Amino acid sequence: MICKVALFSTLVCTVLGAPQYEYEEPAPNSLYETPAESVQEPVQLYETPIVAEPQNIVENIVPAPSADPPAPMEGMPYDFDWGVQDEETGNQFSHVETSDGQTTQGEYRVLLPDGRTQVVKFFDDGNGFNAEVTYEK
Q1: Considering only 7-11, 37-41, 74-78, which range has the smallest mean pLDDT?
Q2: Residue ranges of region Disordered (predicted)?
């Protein structure tokens, strides 16, 4: 009896495992091949650029800086300071700045969420902004 069941199971698996359709591999075609006789010479779709004559060239020359120091700007010199210390929210920040018209310097402080205070000391003497950042506990 066990042999009949095993034989029947093997026969059923073989029948069910066989393909239920006929699949034919597609024949290779030359759909993507370019025939040699249809290759064309490239067509130029633009005109040759016109080269400017040397006298027509415009140069972007930066004027030389003058030896005289620039005149102080309106509102110079100045100094100011302000700060906030809010007990309810815990916000603390401040800003102090001075300028004589040539050099601007100062510092600002911000209380960070981790309890440290970020201190930024800065100056600008006409050669760009410079800053030093430190942290206080």
Answers
A1: 37-41
A2: 61-84
Nearest to 93 by CA among 115, 113, 108: 108
**Which domain does 108 fall in, by range?**
76-136
Classify residue 126: in a domain, yes or no: yes
Q: Would you say residue 96 lies in a domain?
A: yes
Instruction: Work out how many domains the chain is built from and give that number.
Output: 1
Environment class of 106 (CB within 10 Å of its CB; exposed 0-12, middle 13-18, buried 19+):
middle
Structure tokens given for 51: 């080269």
Average pLDDT of span 101-115:
90
Residue 73 C-beta-side C-alpha neighbours within 13 Å: 9
